[in-house]
Amino acid sequence: MTDSVLDVRHLKVQFFAEEETINAVDGIDFELKRGQTLGIVGESGSGKSVTSLALLGLVPPPGRITEGEIWFTSEPNHDPVNLLTLSEEKRRLLRGGKIAMIFQDPMCSLNPVYNIGFQLVEAIQLHQGISESDARRQAILTLQEVRLLPSDEQLRAQYLQEVGGDPTLIGEREISEQINYQKRTILKRYPHELSGGQLQRVMIAMAISCNPTLLIADEPTTALDVTVQATILDLLRELCRARQMSLIFITHDLGVIAEVADQVAVMYKGKVVERGRVGQIFLHPQHPYTKGLLACRPRLDQKLTFLPTVSDFMEVVRGENGEEVIQEKLVTPIISEVEEVATVPPTAKPLLEVRDLTVGFPVRGMFGFSKRYFMAVKGVSFEVYPGETLGLVGESGCGKSTLARTLLRLTRELQGRIYFDGEDITKCSKRRLRRLRREMQIVFQNPYNSLDPRISIGKAILEPLEVHQVGRGDKERRQRVAYLLERVGLNPDWVNRYPHEFSGGQRQRICIARALALNPRFIICDESVSALDVSVQAQVLNLLKELQGEFGLTYIFISHDLSVVKFMSDRIMVMNQGRIEELDRADEIYENPKTEYTRQLIASIPLGEVCV
Q: Where are the transmembrane segments (predicted)?
């Protein structure tokens, strides 16, 4: 009998292209004990996700496992089996049963044409061979375990509170029918009817429904708010403890790893460059790559001028045999803190003024008539001053993005006024509004969806210059494109390349270059770094600060990540359910939050982000 659940020995995964062979996973070893959590961290392309797919036997072609052994022990009294020697049929029975996985994007992992009940019941029946009614009961119990559905006692209490009645007068039969109705209702909902946090709970419920021995979570909290993220992390910890389940938690965020993992493995270009206990890795990192990952994450207890990056700590050189060798830089990067100065002169005139702004969306009633509005923004008022960065934080659904789109006149307001440089832009004609577009730009969250895949990046940056007739001809405009690419750290010779030829961080730089093309004065960054690795995120944040100093830009920086917002912002505005909870200096918001909601947001931040 062994206490080991997983023993990976010299695993190697290669992808075979026409001209070269890529070692996605290059001879890694690790062991996972029963009930233990292993955190695997690294940037995109480091081999984290390919490792998880190799464990499940799901490496996509042209990839192939070329070397190694994966020994898996499903039960304490069972002998270990090498997963790589099993037939596909036997691996399929283990996959989803004894080995389960939570993927990064639940919206892409769930079938949009089936309700969540059907998908849960299907997974349970496939691996347990029980009747549909038994599978449905188990699906409900699992949804209650992940707290997407309240327990029977809570459902009973909620119903009695709503009707305000005595249970002896209502009758147990009616109460039981109402409880069952609530259970059927949640099972009938489709993926698009649930929030990101709710969808992730459905994925967790599906993964644990067959009581797996090993759960693999691949970036399960990357795009979630800090409060939802904290809830998901608490849930995973509780499930592992209650079920004695082993967990592999994959992420690029070391702050999150500090919350859940017992052991950490740091991956770089397919290799494990450092491993150890969480405290050891955080307090005494040995490898320069680990030091760089820890340093480039913004800290809440500091206000830095610029963030260090991984390249500040290490460089890659060629060895005698042509192989890549990592060398630590001997000169430690100088990390300078921002001096406390008044960010806004007392006599400064606001560049943007918002007065009693209300935005709502019609809710369709019977026969298609609109009887009421869902109010996304409720009477907000604030100012943004020239050269300032106003951070905007809050949970999903609080109205951040709706407010941003309304400021840019992409969404109409129900009432209120928006003044840009003293002009009321809510009354602008279409002709005036088009000229105003040159002054106001936006960088969206997802760089993959922000660029047209059918046109080159040079054309994408050139297009606004042509639309607004900026420059004295094609030659001058193309020179402007080349300058912008160079300014955001990209090669001007790449103008004829297409978006799919660039990484996520490079695409976001292209989006920033396009936003700068018309020399705007005001830019909204809507979750513009939330999908990026911490090292790439640090580079983009530094770039935004440099550009602000060079061009005198004014930003509204929207994010659910308080540490990033605090690094970027002079002042922070906290939104909750369409209203402004509080607005103050960034340091004051973090050190002395005035409202309970803000205190909850700060309390939800992973401890690793505070103490790294």
A: none
Check which CATH number belongs to the domain holding 66 and give it.
Answer: 3.40.50.300
Range of the domain at 9: 1-109+212-286
Choose among 544, 531, 554, 441: nearest CA to 489. Answer: 544
pTM of the model: 0.79
Tell me, yes or no, whether 40 lies in a domain.
yes
344 band by pLDDT with thresholds 50, 70 and 90? low
222 and 82 fall within a common domain: yes
DSSP structure string for 468-512: TT-SSSHHHHHHHHHHHHHHTT--GGGTT--GGGS-HHHHHHHHH
Same domain assignment for residues 401 and 528: yes
Q: How far apart are CA 574 and CA 496, in angstroms?
A: 42
The residue count for the chain: 612
Q: How confident is the model at residue 612 (pLDDT cuts 50, 70, 90)?
A: very low
The answer to whether the CB of 235 falls within 8 A of the CB of 201 is: yes
Q: What backbone torsions phi and psi does residue 321 show, to the nearest 5 degrees? A: -95, 10
How many structural domains comprise the chain? 2
The three-class DSSP label of residue 537 is helix
Share of the chain above pLDDT 70, in %: 91
Average pLDDT over the chain, rounded to an integer: 85
Look at residue 366 in the predicted model and tell me its pLDDT.
46
pLDDT in tens, 251-272: 877 778 888 899 999 999 899 9
